[in-house]
Design goal:
The protein has about 210 residues and is an alpha/beta fold. It is built from six helices and 14 strands. The protein has a single domain, classed as 4-Layer Sandwich (Metallo-beta-lactamase, Chain A). Helix 1 links the parallel strand 3 and strand 4.
Amino acid sequence: MIHIETLTFNPLQENTYIVYDEAGDCMIVDPGCYEAYEQKELTDFIAKKKLTVRLLVNTHGHIDHVLGNYFVKETYKVPFEIFHLDAATLQAVGAYAPNYGFFQYTPATPDRLLKEGDAVIVGSMKFDILFVPGHAPGHIAFVNTAEKICLSGDVLFRSSIGRADLPGGNYDTLIHSIKTKLFLLPDDTIVYPGHGPTTTIQFEKKHNPYCAL
């Protein structure tokens, strides 16, 4: 069984996910921890649950989702993976981080550039990769079909969608990604978004004002 802990970090209220199995093998998705107390919250949870961190992944490379990449990678000595088409998005963060007040941001170098059709495997968990651009040019979602889990990043939120006005974003592309990729998942798939509460595919198909069918 997959367990998911949500920690909300930084002024942009980004959801960081600690995803782990019964054996304690764990991957960290989109660590937004920047301040020392946020880093401590993450490490305290991992220590309390006696988890073994195996992997760090990003759904995309926007600043609020990557602030803790370096900390996680160096603290746990784990590989870091991001989709190949968002490597440039990640690289750009260092140039604009001070504009957001993040003067101590330290970049982390990816160890693997993912492609659509790849999967990430941690312990007994397997997550397939869906390429869902529109919010960011190389945005991906992580999907576990067995337990009907989707880590959607900033593509689909409860009753909302990600911004499409950032560099590399496109509204039509975003809606297309949702309708042709995410909405093909089973209705009872639980969606863990980059911001805000969880939702389900069924709820968004019926009620989302931007993309309901």
